[in-house]
Hints:
Layout: E1 2-9, H1 12-22, E2 29-30, E3 37-46, H2 48-59, E4 66-68, E5 70-76, E6 83-88, H3 92-107, E7 120-125, H4 132-144, E8 153-155, E9 157-164, E10 172-180
Antiparallel strand pairs: 1-3, 1-9, 2-7, 4-8, 5-6, 6-7, 9-10
Helix pairs in contact: 2-3
Amino acid sequence: MIRAFVALPLPETLKDTLEALQAGLPAGRASARETLHLTLAFAGEHLPETIEALHEELGAIQAPAFEVNLCGLGTFGKGSPKLLYADVRKNPTLEALSRQVKSAIRRAGITPSGERYRPHVTLARFRRPPGPEAEARLAGFISAHAGLALPPFRADAFALYRSTLRPGTSPLHEALASYPLIAPPAP
């Protein structure tokens, strides 16, 4: 079985910036550099032949290259945070690509996650709810970075990844295939 997802890889310079930001985290376990990405859709765990069918469907996607802006921080989790993320400025082209990827997942015979798409880059996870002190420090960290606006990066490809879970550490992410996005014609 292969646990798979589709995502935009991040440029190394952006990973450098995000790692520097993570160095100041007051709580949680920072995501490893090699796991930093912007998910388009989670496919789940499937047999290799199903993932091959997904690869074929993803290869047929025709979508334009575009710019992505990370801005601000936030958390997911009701009541107490489960993960800390860098937010993504609203981007209709990114959302359209995510919809195309989810359609490809369905055509491959996979039922995509029913969760509403919220583009983000996971910076840290919390195994258990942080205590009141740690939660206050985290709230201060998020507030201090509320105006975070990183230089945009150009998304010129997306990739199919295998995710191997490893107890006690970050998962191992391996790019199985990359799919180019169409560059606009030169003026």
